[in-house]
Amino acid sequence: MEPCSFPHIESQLAPILVRHGYDATRLLQVLREVQDVLHFIPPEAVTCIASHFGMPRSGVEGVAGFYSFLSLKPAGEYRILFSDNITDHMLGKPELMQYFCNKLWVEPGKVSEDNLVSVDSTSCTGMCDQGPAALVNGWPLTNLDNNRLDLIAELIRLRKPLADWPPMLFEVADNIRRKGVLLDETQEPGAAIRETLARGARQTLAELDMSNLRGRGGAGFKTAAKWSFCHAAIAEEDGSEICDVDGTTKRVMVCNADEGEPGTFKDRVLLASYADLVFEGMTVGARVVGASKGFLYLRGEYRYLLDRLNTVLDRRRASGLLGRDILGEKGFDFDIEIHLGAGAYICGEESALIESLEGKRGRPRNRPPFPVTHGYLGLPTVVDNVETFACAARIAERGGAWFAAMGTPQSTGSKILSISGDCARPGIYEYPFGVTVREILADCGAQEPYAVQVSGPSGCMISWKEFERKIAFEDLPTAGAFMIFRRNRDVFQAAHNFVHFFAHESCGFCTPCRVGTQLQKKIMDKIDSGHGTVCDLEEMKRLGHLMKSMSHCGLGHTAGNPVLDTMEKFPDVYERKLANLAFEPAFDLDGALETAREITGRDDAWAHL
Ligand SMILES: Cc1cc2nc3c(=O)[nH]c(=O)nc-3n(C[C@H](O)[C@H](O)[C@H](O)COP(=O)(O)O)c2cc1C
Ligand code: SF4
Predict the structure, then answer these.
(1) For position 606, what pLDDT does the model report?
(2) Where are the domains of the chain?
(3) Fold match between domain 415-487 and domain 492-575
(4) Which residue from 101, 160, 509, 569 has the fewest beta carbons nearer than 10 Å?
């Protein structure tokens, strides 16, 4: 490959490109590593990467510009990103961030004059049980308070490398408070694969079917059905076998560990302490559908788990649980690679995730075709949640009937919840499906509970009147988040925070969501500042329904939920904030012309327009 014309950049790039085999599907990983070394992605690096990958500069810039952890402009040598979830706010995030900025003489969102530090906000980092949280150059900081921030500011001023920072700053606790069938029992690595081999792929699929396992990532699709569709998709339309470039890979198993829904952190714990169970489930799945390639798509916020997870994979390879002829079974070849995300909630959506795996922007695809027939590089691909794979491993070992006996008939087995907000014991709780909200609130020591946001911003907010409702697909489905708000909390601020989240995370591909989320944010800001009117509430209802019906993917379909839900269940919260006017424009023409008046020295500058 021809070197590019920037030798100082080329020398830093070369080892990264070699490590990734000059493979364009590795573009996101390459950009992440360039950012690690240079603290941003300079234009010369964009040019070099584009020339090595034989793509236009705009293609590389397009990818780099899409992911919020990548920066095309110089960022600080220490890049601090405060987690912006509502639970972080409730624990004092805005004040702490301001305190930290004052200490370091830096404005939020800007880089210090000496390029040493930049401070900004980022969407929920998945540490709501130990917030307020932040990331420093991608590494998690937890339980932040003024003392910790004083220490961090000092370490930055002394330019101490992160490796020399006190380890307690980076400690992440599991906070497992209640164990059930997934978390309580141990499974010997290989036990589920052995059972699968003994029983055969077809019978294992039958057990999965009998278990009635439904996906734990949100939509609740039946896992056995998904696996059997992928297995059935063995031929292209012309009847030829599907193979990728190396001529061997036929189907792909992907574990979705993007966990971007604010308030969700149960996959973090499964990966930190139950990784064998998750990889075991992926391997069982590979046997059932006939996959030879696996990916774990790990959200960028969890990169601190990367080395630990790779160690588990190495151990499994050494024990014959991954690689060629797994457990001596001729032709059972399967291996797993970890792919790191870079700060984009939309990459949790399965088709956007696949785009991202291919090194592109995480833009949701048109469906059909669905990933089970045309997924990663056009190959039949299963995308399942971390917890779904953990359940599959247990079912393969213990059988479908055992699993189906737990929970409710429509929602079998257990559900792991990530509990945060106003309670004495935030953390991970595993329950059989069918548990009531009231029972959960009692277990975690909820303090004067008034409302609960179930399943994150894309889920629903329930009021105290609904605490007898059950966690189950047929009543309150949840991917895992359970955020508690006590009596004197302003639930408007929760909806306000969620609306900002969606506006930030919309990928911008389709107009209803791109424009709708921005308009929703503007109106909520207006109401928050005391200028909202009844017309604004009507407009938000209209927008919410429009996004639900007209958007391209699940993000847009659910982006109106926080406002629609809180307006319906807590109308007084909005009414209290409204100005006593029938209508006030969101755009202040008079204010916008203030600068023109100052420049011209005339009070009637607008009269000439
Ligand atoms: C905007 C958006 C974000 C999503 N994020 C996640 C996620 O972080 N993890 C996840 O497992 N599923 C997520 N999903 C759901 C996935 O698209 C997909 O349904 C899921 O991974 C399938 O796995 P399951 O059948 O095991 O639930 C998301 C969906 C949307 C629309
Ligand atoms: S709905 Fe939103 S996130 Fe989904 S494709 Fe459209 S703009 Fe992107």
Answers:
(1) 40
(2) 9-64, 78-173, 178-404, 415-487, 492-575
(3) no
(4) 160
CATH architecture for residues 78-173: 3-Layer(aba) Sandwich (3.40)
**Ligand 2 atom showing the smallest separation from residue 517 Cα:** 2
- So what's the pLDDT on residue 10? 87
**Rounded distance between C-alpha atoms, residue 470 and residue 415, angstroms:** 12
102 alpha carbon to ligand 1 midpoint, in Å?
A: 39
Can you tell me the distance from the alpha carbon of 484 to that of 182, in angstroms, rounded to the nearest whole number? 24
CA distance linking residue 455 with residue 445, whole number of Å: 19
Distance CA 86, CA 68 (A): 19
146 φ/ψ angles, rounded to the nearest 5 degrees = -60, -40
Residue of 208, 266, 357, 385 to mutate, ligand 1, most atoms within 8 A of C-beta: 385
Q: Is the dihedral of CA 458, 407, 272, 292 positive or negative?
A: negative
Nearest ligand (C-alpha, residue 381): 1
CATH assignment of 415-487, given 3.50.50.60, 3.10.20.600, 2.60.120.40, 3.30.450.20? 3.10.20.600
pLDDT value, residue 250: 84
In this prediction, residue 244 carries a pLDDT of 45
pLDDT value of residue 579: 75
Q: Which CATH number fits domain 178-404: 3.40.50.1220, 3.30.300.20, 3.40.50.11540, 3.40.50.300?
A: 3.40.50.11540
Q: Which of 486, 32, 114 is nearest to 300 (CA)?
A: 32
Distance 365 CA to ligand 2 centre (A): 10
Short-list 204, 219, 311, CA closest to 256: 219
End-to-end CA distance of the chain: 58
CA of 418 from ligand 2 middle (Å) equals: 26
pLDDT at residue 239 in the model: 45
Give per-residue pLDDT as tens, 213-233: 999 998 899 999 999 999 998
> Across-strand partners of 296?
255, 338
Name residues of the chain where pLDDT drops below 70: 1-3, 234-249, 580-609
Distances (CA, A) of 21 to 9, 15, 34, 342, 490: 18, 10, 15, 20, 52
Position 609 scores a pLDDT of 33
Q: How much is the pTM?
A: 0.93
Tell me the sheet residues that pair with 202.
none
Within 6 A (CB) of ligand 2 lie 346, 364, 506-510, 513-514, 551-553, 555-556
